[in-house]
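Data deposition worksheet. Section B asks for the primary sequence of the deposited chain exactly as it was used as input, without tags or linkers unless they were present during the calculation. Section C holds the resulting structure in C-alpha cell form. Section D is free text for depositor observations; keep each observation to a single sentence. Incomplete worksheets are returned to the depositor.
Section A, Depositor: J.P.
Section B:
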Amino acid sequence: MKILLTGAAGFIGMTTCLRLLARGDEVVGLDNLNDYYDVQLKLDRLARLQGHPSFRFVKMDVADRPGMQTLFEDERFDRVIHLAAQAGVRYSLKNPHAYVDSNVVGFMNILEGCRHTKVQHLVYASSSSVYGGNTKMPFSERDSVDHPVSMYAATKKANELMAHTYSHLFGLPTTGLRFFTVYGPWGRPDMALFLFTKAILENRPIDVFNHGRMQRDFTYVDDIVEGVIRVTDRAAEGDAAYSSDAPDPGTSHAPFRVFNIGNHNPVPLLDFIGCIERALGQVAQKNLLPLQDGDVPATYADVEALRAWVGFAPATSIEAGISRFVEWYRSYYRV
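Section C:
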C-alpha cells in the first residue's frame, strides 16, 4: 500500500510509520515541524525513518491548501492516516486560532484530497477530549459528545462531523479514533509523564492538579499503533442496523465509524506518579493544585466496539510502559 501519514515527526506518527515500513508499505510522511515543542526531538524521530528506502518525507502544513491539493494529485495514495494536529488542551486556551488553522482547515484539505483522488480509507485522530464534562463511565461511542470543555476538543468533534459529511455525500470511508492519553518512549514533552520525569530528575516539585484526584486511561503507544494499523486495514462500512429514529453516534448508514482506543483501565494519578518514582528510584515533591480550566477529572475508555471490529486488545501494563519510557528518557537525555 502507498500510505500518506501526516504528523510523521510526531510521537504516534513516527511509531506508526516504523510499523508500516516494517510490514512493507510505502509511506509518505508529512509534517510541518512547528515549534509547539522541541523541534530537535521531532528531527530525531524523523532520523529514525529517513534511512528507510520506502519512506519519503514532505515538509508541509496540512493547512496549505494548494500544496495539499498538489500532493494528493501527484501521489495518488491508497490510504491516509491523518495524525497531524495542533495538540494540547491547555495551549488551546492561549492560542485558539492555531487549532482552527490546523485541526479544522487542515482536516478540510485532507478530506478534499481523499475525495478527489478516491482514497480507499481515511483514518484520523480524534480524542477522548470530545467527551468533555461527561461523568458516565466508561466513555462509550454511543454517548453524546455535544459539550466540549476546550477548543481542542471542539475541533476534534468538528473533525468527526466533517468526516461523516464526506462519508455521506461522497462515499468516502472514514474512521475516527478517540485516543486516550498515549504515553511511551519518544513521547511529547508537554505530557504529564515527560514533565514529571524531567522535574523529579532535576529535584523540582511536580504540579499535581485537582489535588491528585484525577484518573486517566493511560495507553501505551505500541498498543495504540497496533489498533491504528488494524483499523487502517479494515475500511469503514455503513451499518445496516443504523436507525435514524434512534441514531448511534459511533456508526452511520454511511461508511463512517468512530472508535475509542484506550487501555480500558483508568489509573489514579497518584498511582501513576508512584510508578514513575519507582522507575526512577526517587520520590517526587508534589505541588497540589486545583483542576485546570479545560481539563477533566477522569477518562475511561469503553473499547468493546474496537475489539469487536478488529480484535483490539491492549497488552502493556502501566508499570512496563513507564519503565520503558524512563529507560528511553535516560538514554536520550543522558541522565
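Section D:
The mean pLDDT is 95.
The two ends are 40 Å apart (CA to CA).
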